[in-house]
Every structure is written in structure tokens, then in C-alpha cells.
Write a structure and sequence with these properties.
Blueprint: H1 3-12, H2 15-21, H3 24-38, H4 64-69, H5 77-84, E1 90-94, H6 100-108, E2 113-117, H7 121-133, E3 140-143, H8 148-152, E4 159-163, H9 169-172, H10 175-180, E5 185-190, H11 198-205, E6 210-216, H12 220-226, H13 237-244, E7 253-259
Parallel strand pairs: 1-2, 1-4, 2-3, 4-5
Antiparallel strand pairs: 5-7, 6-7
Helix pairs in contact: 1-3, 12-13
Length: 263
């Protein structure tokens, strides 16, 4: 397939890319960026999951380019490196999408079993493909909906629970669940953008069991000014902002929760 044809095939599969390429003022330089990034391979270029392969130029519920570039959620990049150095026996990824974290953590935590959940059937299909492509399929178990009953009944010894479930975290995490997770670490993306009481709710239900460290996202302008990637060299500031954008409607927070006492 010719490069130009392949680029437009990729674009047709991703509305976000199609939107950007449709802006005449950005077309030429951004098309060059897309060609460089996607025409050779679909390998994550940097970050905690460097080298991870994508089966398609597609992500679910988030922007693809920051993931393949490796800038996705860079605000918690140092934290992820610390977590990848721990000896977790399991990872639970609630809202696993196409598998960026589920597969990436399976690659980094080579002894951990990974449970991934997503209600989007396309996400589960892509996650299976990504697990196969990166040779971690034997350690990934996928499911659809993870409620309190499912979470409490998972066979966990010393787990990392990653949660990005678009506000459902308020319903999922209660006092009883906090007590059931007393030996496990959690990394929760907090969606106060949908309900401003979510962060206070989480602080309250985990106050007796876990300590909380909060991490904030930064704006696209800050990213364009501070992030350095060779793939962005030569791009105008406004194009860098769009390339690095993760489509967030507001500044977001992540809570990293550590058990106060591990029994």
C-alpha cells in the first residue's frame, strides 16, 4: 500500500486525526508528522511502555497519537516507573480500553497476572489483539463489567488496581470495598469533571485504610512548552498543542493510594 494511501486509511479510522488533517493551516506539517509516526510501525516510542506494539492505529475513549508517542498521561510517568519496580502479583485494570495499561503493565510486571475490564466490546477485542501481539496473552484475563462483587471476588494477593471508569469510581469504591482492598495499591483517575464530589468521596472512604497522593494533569500549552520529543521537532507551537492533546475537558487528577498497614 502506498504511503499516502495508508495515511488516509489511518485517518479514516480515527475521527480525531481526520479532524486535525481537515484544518488547512495544519495539514501539511501535521500530515508529515502522521506519516513519520505511523507509516513505519505502530510501536510506542517512549515512556513506561516503550516498545509496546499496537495492532491498529486506534484507541478507545482517548487520543491515539499521545499513546504511540509515549506522552500519554506523562504527568504520572515517574510514578508508573516506581510502580513497575514493585513486586505486584496481580494488576486489575478497570476501564482498560484497548490495553495501553493492561498490556503495558503485563510487559513490565513480568510475574503479575492482569485482569482487564471494559464495557466496550471493541476495547476488549483490541486488548486481546494487543496482548497477543506483545506475547502477554497468557497472563491477561479480560472481562466486561467490574462491579463491587466482581472486584471483591478476584483472587488478589498484592495487587495494583488501576481505575479509569468515567465517574463510576464513586459508586465502585465504598467503605466496604476500601476495607477489602486494605493490602493493595490503587491508581484512580478522578472524574470531578462529571461530579465534583468524587474526589472528596474517595478521600473519605479510604481515609482509614490508605494514604493518598494526588497528581494533576497539565494544559496542552504547558505540554507544548515543556515536553521534548524528536517527533515534534519543527512543528509550530499550536500544532504541538494539538498533537499532545488527550482531549480532556478540564484539568484532571489521579489519586495514588497506598495501604497504611499491609497485613
Amino acid at each position: 500500500m502506498k504511503t499516502k494511501t495508508r495515511i488516509y486509511k489511518i485517518v479514516s479510522e480515527n475521527s480525531w486525526l481526520r479532524f486535525l488533517l481537515g484544518e488547512k493551516s495544519y495539514s501539511r506539517k501535521y500530515a508529515k508528522y502522521v506519516r513519520y509516526t505511523l507509516s513505519k510501525d505502530l510501536k510506542v516510542r517512549s515512556g513506561p511502555f516503550t516498545g509496546m506494539l499496537y495492532p491498529h492505529a486506534e484507541s478507545v475513549g482517548s487520543c491515539f497519537i499521545p499513546k504511540i508517542l509515549g506522552s500519554y498521561e506523562k504527568e504520572i510517568g515517574n510514578l508508573l516507573e516506581q510502580l513497575c519496580a514493585k513486586d505486584y502479583t496481580e494488576v486489575v485494570d478497570i476501564g482498560c480500553a484497548e490495553g495501553y495499561y493492561a498490556v503495558g503493565l503485563a510487559m513490565r510486571l513480568k510475574k503479575a497476572k492482569v485482569f482487564g475490564f471494559d464495557t466496550n466490546s471493541r476495547a476488549i477485542e483490541l486488548c486481546k489483539q494487543m496482548a497477543d501481539l506483545n506475547n502477554v496473552q497468557d497472563r491477561i484475563i479480560l472481562g466486561n463489567f467490574c462491579d463491587q462483587t466482581v472486584l471483591k471476588n478476584l483472587p488478589l494477593t498484592r495487587a495494583l488496581i488501576v481505575c479509569d471508569c468515567e465517574g463510576y469510581e464513586k459508586k465502585l469504591f465504598t467503605d466496604k470495598i476500601a476495607s477489602a482492598l486494605i493490602n493493595h495499591d490503587l491508581l484512580i483517575e478522578v472524574h470531578d469533571i462529571f461530579d465534583p464530589t468524587i474526589s472528596s468521596h474517595l478521600r473519605d472512604v479510604f481515609k482509614n485504610t490508605h494514604t493518598i497522593e494526588a497528581y494533576s494533569s497539565i494544559s496542552n500549552s504547558q505540554k507544548a512548552l515543556s515536553y521534548s520529543y524528536k517527533e515534534l521537532n519543527g512543528l509550530p507551537f499550536n500544532v504541538k498543542q494539538k498533537v499532545l492533546s488527550e482531549g480532556r475537558g478540564a484539568i484532571m487528577e489521579w489519586f495514588y493510594l497506598k495501604p497504611k498497614v499491609v497485613s
